[in-house]
Design a protein that fits this description.
It catalyses: ATP + protein L-histidine = ADP + protein N-phospho-L-histidine. InterPro entries: GAF (IPR003018), GAF-like_dom_sf (IPR029016), HATPase_C_sf (IPR036890), HATPase_dom (IPR003594), His_kinase_dom (IPR005467), Sig_transdc_His_kin_sub2_dim/P (IPR011495), Sig_transdc_His_kinase_HWE (IPR011102). It comes from Methylobacterium cerastii. The structure is a single chain. The chain is an alpha+beta fold. It folds into two domains: 169 residues, GAF domain (Beta-Lactamase), CATH 3.30.450.40; 133 residues, Heat Shock Protein 90. It is 49% helix and 21% strand. It has nine helices and 13 strands. The strands form three sheets. Strands 3-2-1-6-5-4 form a six-stranded antiparallel beta sheet, with helices on both faces. It has a five-stranded mixed beta sheet with strand order 8-10-11-13-12, covered by helices on one side. A hairpin with a 4-residue loop joins strand 1 and strand 2. The radius of gyration is 36 Å and the shape is elongated. The chain starts with 6 loop residues before the first helix and ends with a strand.
Length: 381
């Protein structure tokens, strides 16, 4: 420290600078930017001409100047300093102890590194940058002028080094976590792709059995089973395709539109319309929703229109903290005494009531032209 600095004011200023950098270190996500900012603030806090942050290159056992202030061209990003005990920075790295050298020209412990000699450096102070992963490198302040670095300056610099070490470790950990999440997402997508393919094979086998079966209850049951399997396969198909979104979630609107299009393909004489708002839902909830829509549309195709042709509408929208699924037609309508809670003789209605129970949903059948099913499902938190 130079003699002309009033000690208390000087130290308070250093603490303010250190606190400022602490906030940046917590928020920063760019190692090079943080290293550069640390060298700027460290030089400012110590009234020094030069500062540099050096990273230890393990394979070469050298210290690379990653950031710095005051240095000439071609130093930051390319200059290297020996990491052995014969250089001040190397000594700090290898021993883990701070190094003060206020008279480099008379120093018997170390040689003066070339870049420091070229810049006329007369005094230097080095502290170790480390974290739980080990030593990252060294933070060094240098000056060409007479003066004295002191133990109090070490405390200031070590504060910067500790903040840097923690920030570097955090960023590396976050990077590894992002890689792990990306890998997990890829694995989930691959698994969904395989599940979808397996379900498609099952659906094809059921369709083959249905074609070979005589017309009647057995054939109808096989066709129903195929459409249910295809509805579940549709969820896994969406999970596989929507890889750039939240893992384990799908766009319900897009899923229902695809489901309606598939059902349209199996009932060409009907017109199946879908108007669904975009909404992200988990696959665990999308499957029962899709199965309910599948059952209701299939029932409408079978029973709503005696002449086997007509319109079936599917809707999905959010209202009052609920997701509302709506399936309606303009056909013969439901029996006057219809009660979904007592419609246990129908497998389709039993499926719907069981699925609604899974979702904590309420199923209503508002009266009007044709049949209408309104399913209110609580939105996920």
């Amino acid at each position: 420290m130079s003699d002309h600095h009033p000690d208390l004011t000087y130290r308070l200023r250093q603490q303010a600078i250190l606190s400022e950098f602490g906030v940046e270190a917590l928020r920063g996500d760019d190692v090079d930017g943080l290293l550069q900012r640390a060298t700027e603030l460290c030089a400012e806090g110590m009234g020094a001409e030069f500062c540099k942050a050096l990273e230890h290159l393990h394979d070469e056992d050298m210290l690379l100047v990653r950031a710095g202030v005051g240095w000439g061209p071609n130093v930051v990003g390319s200059a290297r300093v020996g990491a052995d005990l014969a250089s001040p920075a190397g000594f700090a790295l290898k021993t883990g102890r701070p190094v003060i050298s206020n008279h480099l020209e008379n120093e018997a412990r170390f040689r003066t590194p070339q870049i420091m000699a070229e810049h006329g450096i007369r005094r230097a102070i080095n502290v170790l940058i480390e974290n739980r992963e080990g030593a990252f490198g060294v933070l060094e302040v240098d000056d060409t002028r007479e003066g004295m670095f002191t133990e109090a300056d070490i405390a200031f610099m070590q504060g910067f080094a500790n903040l840097l070490g923690g920030a570097i470790e955090r960023q590396r950990t976050e990077g590894l976590l992002r890689q792990a999440l990306t890998r997990q997402d890829l694995l989930v997508r691959e698994m969904s792709h395989r599940v979808k393919n397996s379900l498609a094979i099952v659906a094809s086998l059921l369709a083959l059995q249905a074609r070979n079966a005589d017309a009647g209850p057995v054939r109808d049951a096989l066709i129903d089973a195929r459409t249910r399997v295809e509805a579940i396969a549709g969820v896994h198909d969406q999970l596989w395709r929507q890889g750039d979104t939240t893992p384990g979630e799908i766009d319900l609107g897009q899923f229902l539109e695809t489901l309606a299009a598939n059902l349209q393909g199996s009932a060409p004489s009907h017109r199946i319309l879908c108007a669904a708002e975009p909404l992200r839902v988990s696959a665990d909830r999308a499957i029962p929703m899709g199965l309910m829509v599948n059952e209701l549309v299939t029932n409408a195709i079978k029973y709503a229109y005696p002449d086997r042709t007509g319109e079936v509408r599917v809707g999905a929208a959010c209202a009052g903290g609920m997701l509302v699924l709506d399936v309606s037609d303009d056909g013969v309508g439901l029996p006057a005494d219809f009660d979904i809670g007592r419609a246990s003789r129908s497998l389709g209605m039993r499926v719907i009531t069981n699925l609604a129970r899974q979702l904590d949903a309420r199923v209503a059948t508002p009266r009007g032209q044709g049949a209408r099913f309104r399913i209110e499902i609580p939105l996920e938190a």
